[in-house]
Structure formats: C-alpha cells, structure tokens
C-alpha cells in the first residue's frame, strides 16, 4: 500500500485537535458548574488525548539518550490512562461494577509497570524484540477490552432512559469502541506518514467526535434525539389540561417528570413548604430543598450537583437527578422550564376550578337551606290559612246578617286576601318541591299534552284564540312538571292577551338535536329591561291591575322546571307578524329530546 501525502495526516491531526479543544472547553465549564466525578473523569480523559496530540507535534528526535527514553515512557504511561479513564467514567455513572473497575485499575497499573520496565523503545525501521512485540499486543488487547467493557456498560445503562440520555450513552459507547479500533489499526505502522497512520488518525477523529457529541450536542441533533421525548411531553401537557384539582395535577405530573427526565426523584413543592406530591424523595429531602429554594430568586435553579428546580407562581417543580443527570443535566433545564410553564397554567386553572366548585357548593348549600326554609314555612302556614278561610266561611254563612255598614265589604276583602295567600303558599310549596322531590320521568308527547292544556285553559278564557300547529318533540320528563310548565305559560299568555286575543304554541327542531318551544301572545308585551326581572320570585309587572289574578310565581316555577332539565327559558318581543306581544322561548337540550312525533293537526280553541 503506497503512502499518502503528509498533508492528509496533518489535516486529520488538526481536526482531531480542534474537536478535543471543544470538548475540553465545554467540560471545563460544566465541571465548574457541577463538580461531579463523571464530569471530572471525562475532562481528564479528553485533556490527556489533547496533550498527547500536542506533544506529538513537537517532533522530538530519538537520539537514544536516557532523557528521550524517559520522555517516551511518561508519554506512553499517560496514554495508557485513557482506556482506564473510560472505565472510571462508566463506573462513576454506575454503568460498570466495582469489581470490573478494580480489574481495570490492576490492568492499567500492570501495563504502566511493564512500560517502565522496558529497556528501550525501537526506533522506526529497527527490528522489534519479542518482548516488545508482546508488550504491544498486550497494550492493544487491554485497550480493546477496557473500551468494550466501558461501551457495553454505557449501552446497557442507557436503556430505558429518556431519548437524549439514551443516545448520548450510545454515542459514548460507540466512541470508546471506535477509539480502540483506531489504536488497533495504527498499532503496527512503522512510519508516522504511512497510510495506516492516516487511516488510524481518521478513525480516531471519528471516535473522539462520537465521544464529544455526548457532551457537546448541537441543537439540531438534540432536537432529533428528543423527538420521542417531545411526543411524551405533549401527552403530559394534555394531561395537565384535563386535571381539575391540584391534587390530581400533582399526582399526574410528578411520575411523568420522573419518567421524562430519567430522574431518581421528583416533587411538586408548595411555597408554604411540603410536597403536594413526590416520588423517590423523602420528606427530609423535600424540606431541605424548600429551605434552599426560598432563598433563590432564579427561575431555573441548580440546587446542587444532583437537583434542579423550576420556580412556579406558587411553588417549585423539582427534579432529583438520576445517575446520568450530573453529566447530562444542562440540556434538560430548557425542557424543565417548558414543563414548568404548563404546570403553572394548569395550577392556575385547577385553583380557579376549585374556587368555582367551592363557591358553587356554598351557593347550592345556601339555596338548599333556603328551599328547606321556604318549604317548612309554606307548609306550616298552610294550616293557619285553612283555619282562617274556614272561619271566614262560617262567619259569612251564619253571621253575615249581623254585619252592619262596611262589615260585609271588609269580610269580602279578608276572604279575597286569604285566598290570595293560600295561592301564594301553594305556589311557594310548588317552587320548593321542584328539584327536591321529583315525580318519575317518562316519555311525554309535548304536542298531545299541549292540546290537553289548551282545552283546559280555553274554557277559562273564552275570548282568547289558542292555536297549536306543527310537529312537537317527545321529551323525557315528569308529565306533572311538563303539564305545570305548559299550563303556567299558556294560561299566563291568555290572561295578558288583549283585543283580538291570540296565543300560539309551536316547536322547532334544533341542529344539535335539541328542541325549541315557543309560546307567543299578542298582549301588551314586556319592556326589554323588565324581561329578566319577570323570572324573579313574587315579581308581578302588572301588580297595579287587580283584574289579572296571579302571585308572581308562575314564571319562576317555569324557569325552575326548565333549568332542572338542563334547558333555558327567556322572554322576547313579539313575532314579526304582530306589533305587540311576548314570545316565551324555551330551549331543551338533546339529552331530554327522545324523538319527534307526527305533526298535530292545526287546531284553534275558542270557547
């Protein structure tokens, strides 16, 4: 094989030096931030390789002197530390057992001792003694064995780790193997400018690049490595948005953080102290971290060599580094910051949800208590008013002739007001019963029920035209409540109609599967600013008109019935075909609409 031009060797060695310098600078910065054993070992290994390359460029002449021999012994002994440092690095990450680490120490010490015992090193072109050839074989085999031991340990340790850690460990293992291959390929070369020497140098550059990539990862490569993590992160973020309580969020995010970062422990710590949730961290550890974090103002906090945290609006998200995080932790800070942002948003959402739930619960409790009071008071008032009406009836029948002057008028007014109070108590009882003690629901044909109600109401309002047409839904509801709803609305509309009095009852299907019920009259109508007020208890907008009976409870009862079905009821103005009137609009949800019956034949009720 012909030799290549020396320039190729210089280029390969220069590239090798540049890569090593980048690795040394990066590891020096990392070691200053977190002085871990693994980082220090890696820094020593790359520094030795860089030193060997720099010394190799000095071109020291081999003159056979003792100083030249000592120089070679020291240089080779230092070089023999590289495979041991690989094993030591893997041991620091617990990828190699103590037993194999001790074996590597003994093997390295034996090689260095043999190096010191060699009397001379043959010059290029000189014959090599059997002892020296055996020495070279032992060095190459030992380097290969230690490199393979490190590679296998790193590959095995990287399994089931987050993607970036896994790829870095694989890169370290591959780099160790390739560097060993470079030594084997160049071990037999006799000239520093031979093709074999250039090839071994190029292979060494590749191996060193693989090692360096484990520590200095370009952004594009880190993004590619983290693709699977980002999928997992998206799943975690979606889970955060579905949590409804702080406890649920904490119990979901902590295991996910531990898995995502390959951490030995994780915790969500409240500002007041104590963990909302934690895994792999004792209470004492959480308390110590809290004491440290309350004194720090940074958003991202590196607590020590094995823990880092993200500050939240009300607490901290803490990750206790796993075996590999002291070396592989810096790139994960940005990821922790991203997760922390989502956790903050989710925590705010959960707290708002819990606050709303507490407020709703308090309002429901107060409303239930109020309904109970209304029911009790109304029920207790019923007996006295019945007694009053009974005595009034006796007084009117047996003693009316004894009344003089305005006595009979006063008796009539007392009777009217007592009857009004009886109606009011009855309506209050009905209002309090809705939602408390409901009759069983069933399939109710709203059209057939409306026809029955129109017949009954028409007998009470002979001057009013009651009109019903079109298809109507079949609704899952209590027939008693449905009749009560339609009776109140149709009767109320008929009472307020005027002139050519007319009330129309219609229904329409909604696109979402729900139903729209309309009760339309041509009465005086209600001013827009009074329409919402009409649903308030005891509110009578026509209180000045004594000729229109009522307690002001009809529309509140209707609203309670509709809302118990999950629907809405509103008052609107007249339809386009009428200058006056009111439209009652009821929207029923799809959950209570079973089907649509055949259209009811157009009918008008006039008595």
Molecular structure report:
This protein is an alpha+beta fold and 607 residues long. Helix content is 59%, strand content 13%. The chain has a 6-stranded mixed sheet with strand order 11-12-10-9-7-14. The protein has a 5-stranded antiparallel sheet with strand order 2-1-5-4-3. The chain has a 3-stranded antiparallel sheet with strand order 6-8-13. Helix 7 runs antiparallel to helix 8 and helix 14 (330-398) packs antiparallel against helix 15 (407-433). The longest helix is centred in the middle third of the chain and has 69 residues, at 330-398. Mean pLDDT is 79; it is low at 188-193 and 543-547.
Radius of gyration: 45 Å
User: What amount of the residues lies in strands?
Assistant: 5-15%
Can you count the beta strands?
Answer: 14
Helix count, DSSP H or I runs of 4 or more residues? 18
Helix content: 55-70%
Strand order of the largest sheet: 11-12-10-9-7-14
Q: Biggest sheet: strands, sense, closure?
A: 6 strands, mixed
By secondary-structure content and strand pairing, the structural class works out as alpha+beta
Shape: rod-shaped
Average pLDDT figure: 79
Q: Give unreliable regions as ranges.
A: 188-193, 543-547
Termini gap = 121 Å
Summed up, what is this model?
This protein is of the alpha+beta class and 607 residues long.
């Amino acid at each position: 094989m012909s030799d290549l031009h020396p320039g190729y060797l210089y280029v390969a060695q220069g590239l090798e030096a540049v890569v090593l310098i980048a690795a040394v600078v990066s590891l020096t910065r990392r070691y200053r931030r977190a002085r871990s054993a693994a980082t220090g070992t890696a820094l020593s290994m790359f520094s030795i390789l860089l030193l060997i390359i720099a010394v190799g460029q000095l071109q020291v002449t081999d003159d056979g002197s003792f100083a030249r021999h000592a120089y070679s012994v020291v240089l080779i002994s230092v070089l023999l530390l590289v495979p041991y440092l690989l094993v030591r690095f893997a041991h620091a990450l617990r990828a190699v057992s103590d037993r194999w680490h001790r074996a590597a120490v003994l093997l390295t010490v034996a090689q260095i001792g043999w190096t010191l015992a060699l009397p001379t090193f043959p010059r290029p072109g000189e014959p090599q003694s059997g002892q020296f050839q055996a020495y070279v074989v032992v060095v190459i085999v030992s380097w290969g064995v230690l490199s393979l031991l490190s590679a296998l340990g790193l590959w095995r340790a990287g399994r089931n780790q987050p993607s970036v850690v896994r790829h870095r460990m694989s890169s370290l293992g591959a780099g160790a193997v390739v560097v060993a291959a470079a030594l084997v390929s160049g071990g037999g070369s006799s000239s520093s400018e031979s093709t074999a020497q250039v090839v071994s140098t190029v292979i060494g550059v590749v191996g060193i690049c693989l090692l360096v990539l484990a520590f200095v990862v370009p952004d594009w490569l880190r993004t590619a490595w983290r693709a699977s993590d980002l999928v997992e992160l998206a799943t975690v973020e979606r889970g955060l948005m579905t949590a409804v309580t702080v406890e649920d969020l904490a119990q979901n995010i902590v295991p996910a953080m531990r898995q995502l970062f390959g951490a030995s422990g994780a915790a969500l710590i409240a500002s007041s102290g104590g963990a909302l949730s934690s895994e792999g961290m004792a209470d004492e550890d959480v308390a110590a971290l809290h004491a440290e974090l309350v004194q720090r103002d940074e958003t991202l906090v590196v607590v020590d060599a094995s823990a880092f945290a993200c500050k939240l609006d009300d607490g901290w998200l803490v990750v206790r580094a796993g075996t590999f995080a002291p070396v592989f932790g810096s790139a994960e800070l940005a990821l922790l910051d991203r997760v922390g942002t989502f956790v903050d948003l989710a925590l705010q959402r959960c707290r708002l949800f819990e606050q709303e739930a507490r407020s709703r619960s308090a309002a429901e409790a107060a409303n239930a208590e109020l309904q109970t009071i209304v029911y009790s008071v109304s029920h207790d008032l019923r007996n006295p008013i019945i007694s009053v009406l009974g005595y009034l009836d006796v007084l009117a029948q047996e003693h009316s002739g004894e009344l003089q002057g305005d006595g009979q008028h006063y008796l009539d007014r007392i009777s009217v007001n007592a009857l009004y109070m009886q109606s009011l108590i009855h309506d209050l009882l009905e209002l309090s019963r809705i939602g408390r003690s409901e009759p069983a629901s069933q399939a109710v044909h709203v059209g057939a029920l409306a026809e029955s109600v129109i017949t009954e109401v028409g007998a009470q309002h002979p001057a009013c035209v009651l009109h019903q047409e079109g298809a109507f839904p079949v609704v899952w509801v209590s027939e008693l409540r449905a009749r009560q709803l339609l009776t109140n609305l149709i009767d109320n509309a008929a009472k307020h109609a005027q002139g050519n009095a007319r009330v129309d009852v219609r229904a329409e299907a909604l696109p979402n599967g729900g139903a729209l019920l309309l009760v339309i009259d041509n009465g005086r109508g209600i001013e827009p600013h009074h329409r919402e007020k009409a649903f308030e208890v005891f509110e009578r907008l026509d209180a000045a008109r004594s000729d229109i009976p009522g307690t002001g409870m009809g529309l509140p009862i209707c609203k309670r019935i509709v809302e118990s079905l999950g629907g809405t009821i509103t008052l609107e103005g007249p339809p386009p075909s009428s200058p006056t009137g009111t439209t009652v609009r009821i929207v029923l949800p799809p959950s209570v609409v079973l089907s649509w019956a055949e259209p009811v034949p157009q009918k008008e009720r006039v008595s």
